[in-house]
Amino acid sequence: VADDGYRLWLKYDLVQDNGLRKDYQKAAGFIAGSGNSPILQTAATELQQGLQGLLGKNVPVVTGAEKKKGGILFSVDATANVSGQPLGKDGYHIAAQNGNLVITGKTDAGVLYGVFALLRQLQTRQSIKNLELTSTPRIQYRLLNHWDNPNGTVERGYAGSSIWKWYELPERLDPRYQDYARANASIGINGVVINNVNASARYLTPEYIEKVAALAGVMRPYGIRVYMSVLWAAPKVIGGLSTSDPLDPKVKQWWTDRTNEIYKAIPDFGGFLVKANSEGEPGPQDYGRDHADGANMLADALGQHDGLVMWRAFVYKANSNGDRFKEAYAEFKPLDGRFKPKTLVQVKNGPIDFQSREPFHPLFGAMPRTPLVLEVQLTQEYLGFATHMVYLAPMFKETLDGDTYANGKGSTVAKVVDGSVDNHSISGIAGVANIGSDRNWTGHPMGQANWYAFGRLAWDHTLSSQAIAEEWTRMSLTNDAPAVRTIADVMVKSRDIYVRYTTPLGLHHIMGQSIHYGPEPWLASSARPDWTSVYYHKADAAGLGFDRTAKGSNALSLYKPEAQQLWNDPKTCPPDYLLWFHHVGWNQELSTGRTLWNELCTRYYTGVDSVTWMQQQWAAVKPQIDPELHADVTGRLQTQHKEALWWRDACVLYFQTHAKQPIPAPFAPPT
Ligand code: GCU
């Protein structure tokens, strides 16, 4: 059977190595659950299903296995501890005990995550002799954000239409919903915001609440809660009120009533995500109130229900003539301390908008009294849609590992987000989904790795990009060790390669207008100055780059002094970030030994060459990969190469009109 990518990393193909399979079989004589809650039932079914494929045998689920040996036991123990340390909530411990393999969780979900961890050992062909695994998620709320609309389109989605079939719900439940839930649970994702942040008010109508409740019913046995994005103006749009002012009693009552209605239908509803006063969306500022007034009103509406408000910090005022980099900080930093409990502020990884490389957002470390949700984008809006192969884990890690110095050295973004820097009891991370109705879910088959990597890093941000790439490759493509190495190597380098042929040296926001695809560095006028390219690259006869030092916009001052140190001197600023912070002369010599112009050309040209290298590496693993999938990726790589040339030529020729220098050897085209 050709692999059409539908099964993602849950393929469970038979273990071919007889010795290894026998070892596994010996350990998996039976499965004994410790109760029959829906989540534990899921755990048993998932384990049975996985083992059926991997071992080619039906492993029975038994009861009363106390005296039996040679099986896999579930144990839910709220007081469980490992080596004297209490096991974290939703964590798992897997170890041999009295001749059985015991998966212990403090919660039912912990057992479910343990089951997937055990299956992963088998899927990646690890030995299970003396197996002992312990893991607890570092971040509590691990969410996908769908930018899906009621009409079935997906904003910035490149994998077909929405997987939610609103017109069929609640009566028909597409089997795909369950497959989606399985995939998420297997990587620890425990929440999904089902609709676009540019939200329709419809989701708050009784008709849609019923539909969302049906989806919640599918997710629940997988430990996943559903959340909604809400339109701030809903009280006016569907509530018949004349205002949406958060301090108006009628507005408060309206939200309280809506919230109660939602919880009646969905008792474990997760909460609200809000994009307000951003890119034309309505918000509390329309009534002279601020973001905290809005968020707190919703928190009050949630009242005693166990729900969160996630309020997005992606804001920038219309017609800004300053530096967009600084705007979210200017609006949100003063609100630190004003947000009620269970209200989180959701911040994109960088200050502009999901560019292929951004310095970490200056709000991280600047709002110690507010739990911040890190928002990253899995859908490749600015990273080549579903055409370019770009493995995003290295990009996520770059943000997570960024040191804010908020509380001294080592106050990384990861530790701000997981709550450890400021001792927050709640923590969250969100990935804007790259999932659609395409048979293989993500359009580009390798895009699945970004969904996977997001879940794995949300669970444990200390995992390496390399380890996650190898794990995913083994589970999804092949267990052939040399091929795994080759593919993981291409994956890990792919993001840097993309940056080189599109936006090297810290260039940003020079892509095609509105569509956000392909190069358009010459774009000089648009509805807003910060929707052009020249606003960001500032190329002129002297040089290139946005001066964000004290001589320029001074955005650098938003960071702690030790963090500024990394970037504030053009001589020592890492070249990858140079043009984010400095306007550099064309003939200025960089730390690489080349002038800016020569380095720029070098990166564009070698970036394209590296795509050729990716093609060669991919060709070399052909025998190990399913033919259909291999051909699919081969075709996409061809397009990627063509478009890398397009980016290179467009950008080099455009910047040359400012630099007025020849393209250096050995890249110069023959005359
Ligand atoms: C980007 C994207 C929009 C989206 C926005 C957001 O600007 O292009 O489509 O709505 O981000 O995150 O709110």
TrEMBL record:
Catalytic activity as recorded in UniProt: Hydrolysis of (1->2)-alpha-D-(4-O-methyl)glucuronosyl links in the main chain of hardwood xylans
Specify whether Zinc is a keyword of the entry: no
- Key words of the record: Carbohydrate metabolism, Glycosidase, Hydrolase, Polysaccharide degradation, Signal, Xylan degradation
Q: How does it assemble?
A: Homodimer.
Gene3D superfamilies linked: Alpha-glucuronidase, C-terminal domain, Chitobiase/beta-hexosaminidase domain 2-like, Glycosidases
As for family, the record states: Belongs to the glycosyl hydrolase 67 family.
Q: Which Pfam families match?
A: Glyco_hydro_67C, Glyco_hydro_67M, Glyco_hydro_67N
| Location of the Glycosyl hydrolase family 67 C-terminal domain | 442-665
Which Enzyme Commission number(s) are on file for it? 3.2.1.131
Q: Would I find Signal among this entry's keywords?
A: yes
Taking every annotated instance into account, which residue ranges of this chain make up the domain Alpha glucuronidase N-terminal?
A: 8-118
Please report the name of this protein according to its UniProt entry. Xylan alpha-1,2-glucuronidase
What SUPFAM superfamilies would the database entry show?
Answer: (Trans)glycosidases, beta-N-acetylhexosaminidase-like domain
Indicate the segments forming the Glycosyl hydrolase family 67 catalytic domain, all copies: 122-441
